[in-house]
Q: What sequence folds into this?
């Protein structure tokens, strides 16, 4: 009797071990089945926030007003000692010296050319003054519009106020350029008159010009950008001698695709990056040129491009290291808004004619057809089909199908 009880106690653990082993095996099988039936995916979240759409292109800086000094008369050019980078002062610095031929050596044709050049210079002064007056009228109108909007205060949309401020600043810069153009045209007319008088004068009168030498003065203050005719030689009237400009007065020229240019308007904000400084600079679109041109891309494809001219917002002191024809990257903001529902662009794919995403609901994939609005490189505006804080699959593959179980990659 006691022997049977001892045998039962010995067999009891084995009877319990078998069900426990089966249970553990079943749990392991279920766990492994769940692991292998779940697909790992990258997950993005639908969120709200500020959003902007930009046209991004490479550009280059250029001096706003460049002036080419040409020979006002025919004669022998004395070697030009100025070099690129030398500073010049308007109406003070001598940039070139010309020894004209003796009056006896002149023919009526050369005198007629000099007279025509003087008359053309006089007409150019009238034209420059007319443009300056026109720009001043535009500036006055922009100033009145800005003043009226500022008086209205909070009843005016911030975007309208910023647009009026941008227009006013743009016209101020345009008036300054027009004034400079008028001064240059007036100086050119005076130079043409002096050259004509010098050609008509006799030897006694020429001594007043420095032993018969005609000195060409700088029409603007700035620096020498390029010397086109350095060596001493005989030059004809109108021969380019030097190029002058003010390196502090820079603008940016960006050529964009014509299909993108139609979205850009005067006054659009610009973010300027990779120019060499530690922080980005800012600019404003001053002009979108009305005519395009054909350009061959790096891949050999013909493209229609349009030049967009941008003014700097920051003062010269914050960009003093920038020079003429320096490369920059410009992002022209064509649309921006706050509190925009957004989906990562990596989640989008096409199903027939609709944009779609894979939404994740309780670990199960759902195919959603959505409607999007504005779009940039990182996200797209959601107009219909998704809600805030929902999760979507990023970069979906062809193996994903609605209804399968997924989990986020660690």
A:
């Amino acid at each position: 009797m006691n022997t049977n009880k001892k045998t039962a106690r010995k067999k009891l653990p084995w009877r319990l071990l078998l069900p426990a082993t089966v249970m553990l095996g079943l749990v392991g099988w279920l766990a492994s089945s769940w692991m292998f039936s779940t697909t790992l995916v990258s997950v993005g979240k639908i969120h709200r926030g500020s959003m902007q759409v930009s046209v991004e292109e490479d550009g280059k800086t250029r001096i706003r007003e460049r002036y080419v000094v040409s020979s006002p008369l025919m004669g022998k050019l004395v070697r030009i000692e100025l070099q690129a980078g030398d500073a010049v002062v308007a109406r003070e610095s001598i940039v070139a010296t010309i020894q004209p031929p003796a009056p006896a050596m002149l023919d009526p044709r050369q005198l007629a050319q000099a007279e025509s050049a003087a008359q053309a210079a006089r007409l150019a002064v009238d034209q420059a003054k007319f443009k300056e007056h026109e720009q001043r009228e535009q500036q006055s109108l922009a100033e009145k519009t800005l003043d009226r909007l500022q008086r209205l205060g909070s009843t005016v949309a911030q975007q309208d106020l910023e647009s009026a401020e941008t227009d006013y600043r743009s016209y101020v810069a345009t008036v300054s350029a027009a004034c400079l153009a008028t001064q240059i045209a007036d100086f050119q007319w005076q130079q043409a008159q002096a050259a004509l008088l010098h050609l008509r004068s006799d030897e006694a009168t020429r001594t007043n010009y420095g032993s018969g030498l005609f000195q060409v003065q700088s029409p603007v203050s700035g620096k020498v950008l390029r010397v086109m005719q350095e060596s001493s030689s005989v030059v004809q009237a109108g021969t380019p001698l030097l190029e002058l400009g003010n390196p502090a007065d820079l603008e940016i020229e960006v050529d964009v695709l014509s299909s993108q240019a139609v979205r850009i308007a005067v006054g659009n904000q610009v973010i300027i990056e990779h120019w060499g400084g530690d922080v980005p600079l800012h600019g404003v679109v001053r002009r979108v040129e009305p005519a395009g041109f054909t350009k061959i891309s790096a891949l050999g494809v013909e493209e229609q491009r349009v030049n967009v001219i941008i003014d700097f917002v920051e003062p010269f002191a914050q960009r003093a290291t920038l020079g003429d024809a320096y490369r920059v990257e410009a992002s022209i903001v064509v649309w921006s808004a706050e509190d925009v529902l957004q989906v990562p662009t990596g989640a989008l794919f096409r199903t027939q004619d609709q944009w779609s995403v894979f939404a994740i609901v309780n670990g199960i994939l759902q195919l959603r057809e959505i409607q999007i609005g504005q779009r940039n490189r990182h996200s797209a505006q959601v107009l219909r089909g998704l809600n805030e804080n929902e999760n979507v699959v990023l970069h979906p593959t062809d193996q994903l199908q609605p209804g399968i179980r997924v989990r986020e990659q660690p």
User: Anything to note?
Assistant: The chain has a mean pLDDT of 83. The first strand starts at residue 39 and ends at 45.
